[in-house]
UniProtKB/TrEMBL annotation:
GO terms for molecular function: S-adenosylmethionine-dependent methyltransferase activity. Signal peptide: none annotated. InterPro entries: Methyltransf_11, SAM-dependent_MTases_sf. It comes from the Bacteria. It holds the Pfam family Methyltransf_11. One of its GO terms (biological process) is methylation. This is Ubiquinone/menaquinone biosynthesis C-methylase UbiE. It comes from Candidatus Kryptonium thompsonii. Residues 49-140 form the Methyltransferase type domain. The lineage of its organism: Bacteria, Pseudomonadati, Candidatus Kryptoniota, Candidatus Kryptonium. CDD domains: AdoMet_MTases. Keywords: Methyltransferase, S-adenosyl-L-methionine, Transferase, Ubiquinone.
Amino acid sequence: MKKEFVKHRFFWDLYAPIYDENRKHEEYLRNTNLNILKTYFHPGQTLIEIGCGTGIEAEEMIKHGCKVILTDVSFEMLKVARTKVGSNAQLINLPAEYIDSFKTKFDGAYSSFGVLNCITDVSSFFQKLHSILKPGSLFVASFINRWYWGDFIFFPLGITNYLKKRLKGWGYITLDGKEYNVIARFYSLNDIKKFSKDYFTIKKIYALPFLLPPAYLKPQERLPKGFFKLLQKIENLINPYFPFNYLAERIIVIFQRS
């Protein structure tokens, strides 16, 4: 296994026991992501999840009526996921870069919350993913955007330091204020289009989020409840449209296999 895979496995193994508790502030984004997944995938389909983490999305997609194969680089993440999905799904310890190990063809695939940011050769990933999906099937992926408009407000105010990392194009992943020797890369929507163009067409693009502050600022806790709900309603109206879906903190892309 490549050295970078080992680093990622170590980090995500370390994070697994506390991941769900640490990510409670992402619930409003996960609900949006799940609504989109349930819109594009239908009961009876066999899906592969790439980078399943602790199985939050898989649990809901199984309830939705899909059969889900869970994959992740971290064995410890898969152990937590098993507690959610039980015997209702197959779990496989596999880095995203080896996704072409499967010999079957899936009805669709999804990858949520930044797995693409942990892949070095994204073009190669799309080529491998293409080989295991049925023609015309969908791949729904969310990733951390390189060009987020809010950074130009939050950084000068001293609220976050993400602007430096995004401008550089990469940064070390932080857990509880400590940086680990594990790199996340920041890709723009145009980068993702370039990486995928030979294998997939893009059907739809959503902001996740644009208007609401990023999850790491914990807007659900800091904003008045009524104001938060108002922003969420506006967000749901604008998130599929340009320029919001190009300049969001995260982006969800609906790909269709060529």
